[in-house]
Write a structure and sequence with these properties.
It is built from seven helices and no strands. It is mainly alpha-helical.
């Protein structure tokens, strides 16, 4: 395993372990790996082809989608994926999936998605 693959796995593990913490940010993640935020962003982009902020967001949204289609309540999903404010969660979800969590859930159960 090369250094990039090892770093990829470590970053994925750190995100997996912490995505549900509202205090988990790129700053926290970069400090964990002892890099400046700017250098960490460059490294992450090189490895994942996306920014660390986007990487964290996508983990949160993928988990949120999984919980949503299993019937969890939206306000509980927001908390479980690291959002203190449901409005911020809705905005993030809509930005990724193009629908509000409520509308996504409705369309999912109608078989439209």
């Amino acid at each position: 395993m090369n250094n990039k693959e090892a770093l990829r796995r470590k970053i994925n593990k750190e995100i997996e372990d912490n995505y549900n913490d509202p205090e988990f940010t790129v700053e926290v993640l970069s400090r964990k790996f002892n890099y400046s935020q700017s250098h960490f962003r460059e490294m992450v982009y090189e490895i994942f082809s996306m920014s660390p902020k986007r990487l964290i967001l996508m983990k949160r949204m993928n988990e949120a989608l999984d919980l949503l289609v299993r019937g969890e309540r939206i306000y509980m999903i927001a908390k479980q994926v690291g959002y203190l404010n449901i409005r911020s969660f809705r905005k993030a979800f809509n930005g990724v999936y193009g629908l509000s969590p409520r509308n996504y859930k409705k369309r999912f159960y109608k078989g439209e998605i």
